[in-house]
Amino acid sequence: METASPLPRSELIRHLVDTRIAGNIATTRENNLDHYRSLALGDPYYMFGLTFRNDWTYRDVLALMAKSAGVVDDPEHRAGQDTIDPERTVDALDAMAARIAAALKRPNPRLLFATGHPTGIMTIHLALARLAARCGATLLTPAEGTMISSGGLGRKRRILYFDDVCVLADGGALVHSHDPAPMQRMLARLDSEPPDLVVADHGFAGAAGEAGVETVGFADSNDPGLFVGEAEGKIAVTVPLDDNVFPRHYAPLTAYLISRVQSDL
């Protein structure tokens, strides 16, 4: 994916809309609003390991998501179609690329990649990890093989790495996870030498940002936690996108992001 020729911005935006990575997304308005209410009520599942200094009401979260992701800002729009603004997606990709490039320009950079979405956007993480390795970065793999309770029911899942991208496994299956505990364990294993940058999503990103590690991440319109974390300065960049379309649809986005990292190096 990283060797593909990047599309110009206007063509990338058209692709994002055509594939529903942005524009009229598959996530329903009802689902988005339910998650915004849950976050406002302090549901840990949607907080991704973050704590917030401000009291975020449901209306506050909706207003932030309209500003940061481009969902419909009308609180009376309660059902049906919702949106992600593709212009905001590409602007955030540019900001993410600048952060990744800045990390890679440091002496002996150390990066950590992790995803709670082992379908969909895992393809982006894999390509970025390969780019970082080619640029001479050390890709960290702390706590590999560690069993950890996940999901609130005491179920044990294993921390694994695919091409230096961390995922959670349940037996022979990779699992979707919002859980911040794996990243908390991973950072604890690194002791006093945190990564220069974490590239992640879900609880992996939230826990890293909460720990004070520079973090960039991807988030869907129904995952407001990272956007609130960004608004409070704990997450450096959050890219709004549908995080579970067909993996091949992310190829142009990935090529664009990698080209922007390379141009910033």
Write the layout of secondary structure elements.
Blueprint: H1 9-18, E1 23-24, H2 29-40, H3 44-47, H4 58-68, E2 83-84, H5 86-104, E3 110-114, H6 122-134, E4 138-139, E5 147-150, E6 155-162, E7 165-170, E8 173-175, H7 181-189, E9 197-201, H8 202-210, E10 215-219, H9 225-231, E11 237-240, H10 251-264
Parallel strand pairs: 3-4, 3-7, 3-9, 9-10, 10-11
Antiparallel strand pairs: 1-2, 5-6, 6-7, 7-8
Helix pairs in contact: 2-4, 5-10, 6-10, 7-8
InterPro entries: Phosphatase_SCO2771
Organism: Sphaerisporangium melleum
Pfam families: Phosphatase
Descriptors for this entry?
single chain, 265 residues, alpha/beta, Rossmann fold, 9-stranded mixed sheet, two-stranded antiparallel sheet, globular, Phosphatase, Phosphatase_SCO2771
Textual characterization of the structure:
This protein has 10 helices and 11 strands. Helix 6 (122-134) links the parallel strand 3 and strand 4 (138-139). With 265 residues, it is of the alpha/beta class. The mean pLDDT is 95. The radius of gyration is 17 Å and the shape is globular. Helix 2 (29-40) crosses helix 4 (58-68), helix 5 (86-104) packs across helix 10 (251-264) and helix 7 crosses helix 8 (202-210). It has one domain (9-264): 3-Layer(aba) Sandwich (Rossmann fold), CATH 3.40.50. Strands 3, 4, 5, 6, 7, 8, 9, 10 and 11 form a 9-stranded mixed beta sheet that branches. The chain has a two-stranded antiparallel sheet with strand order 1-2. InterPro entries: Phosphatase_SCO2771. Pfam families: Phosphatase. It comes from Sphaerisporangium melleum.
